[in-house]
Design goal:
This protein has helices spanning 28-51, 66-101, 110-139, 148-164, 168-178, 180-187, 191-221, 225-240, 244-264. It is built from nine helices and no strands. Helices cover 72% and strands 0% of the residues. The longest helix is centred in the N-terminal third of the chain and has 36 residues, at 66-101. α7 (191-221) packs across α8. The protein is globular, with a radius of gyration of 23 Å. It has 270 residues and is mainly alpha-helical.
């Protein structure tokens, strides 16, 4: 034993290494791209709050006229999706920069077209959901009101979204969204048209992953900023938490509890 009471030859026990973040290890271009996406998302939240001011009148699910809905929907997508889609956008941009650095064809601006393709896929879904909503209201005028019948319909829709969380289709689509580099390398296309097509393809996978959550948002109130934030948080948790199965199941339980609340508590979905 040495004088400090530790076994050995008397040599001092080395201190644990101290890890420091080297600023040079941070890619400023990646940081800038992520910052841009987050700034656009924040601006979209502000715009959505302004647009939705006073939209709590009438049916709680009312998305408004088509032109208003379409503009607001695209901005909502940026607000809700840009934080969780950032890893995929960064992966795509890195591949494009690597190609340019090695002298291969990768036109500047392709990352923006990739994001545009992603938004285009979700816009098509939004238009389809709006059409289904309008058809339902036309056939059953009181189907989505704050009366008990309307609340029960909304609760069933939200429960269906919770059930979708356990399906193989959900699992496959979520895996595609959580592995950006693998997704892009297996499907990469070059040029402006290729960037747009790849963005649409990724957006389509994202739609297949999150469509039920978005339908639940329609049932809760697509023009309600609070529910929009809740659903956006669910999507981010599923895509970004390292515990995929836990995140998926937690969202399902949360949706089930919300459905019960909507059915039993008047005014919850307002």
């Amino acid at each position: 034993m040495n004088r400090k009471g530790t076994p050995g030859t008397g040599a001092r026990t080395p201190h644990a290494p101290v890890f420091r973040l080297d600023p040079r290890a941070i890619d400023s271009r990646v940081a800038g791209l992520v910052a841009l996406l987050l700034v656009l998302a924040a601006a979209s939240w502000v715009f959505s709050a302004v647009q939705m001011n006073g939209m709590d009148m009438g049916r709680w699910t009312d998305p408004g006229p088509l032109g208003f809905f379409l503009t607001t929907w695209v901005v909502m997508l940026a607000a809700m999706m840009f934080p969780s889609v950032a890893p995929m956008v960064v992966a795509y941009d890195r591949i494009q920069r690597h190609r340019r650095g090695s002298g291969r064809y990768a036109p500047r601006g392709s990352t923006a077209l990739f994001v545009a393709g992603y938004l285009l896929a979700w816009t098509v879904f939004g238009l389809a959901a709006y059409g289904a909503y309008a058809l339902l209201v036309a056939i059953v005028p009181g189907a989505l009101t704050s009366e008990p019948g309307g609340r029960y319909v909304a609760a069933v829709v939200i429960l269906a979204a919770a059930a979708y969380q356990f399906t193989p289709a959900k699992n496959i689509a979520l895996m595609k969204c959580r592995t950006p580099m693998d997704f892009i390398l297996r499907r990469v296309r070059y040029g402006f048209v290729g960037a747009l097509r790849l963005g649409v393809e990724h957006g389509t996978w994202c739609v297949s992953c999150c469509w039920a959550l978005m339908i639940a948002l329609f049932a809760l109130g697509v023009m309600n900023l609070g529910w929009m934030a809740v659903v956006g948080a669910f999507i981010a948790l599923e895509k970004m938490l390292p515990w995929r199965r836990f995140a998926n199941r937690a969202v399902a339980v949360a949706l089930a509890l919300i459905a019960i609340g909507v059915a039993l508590v008047p005014g919850m979905a307002s």
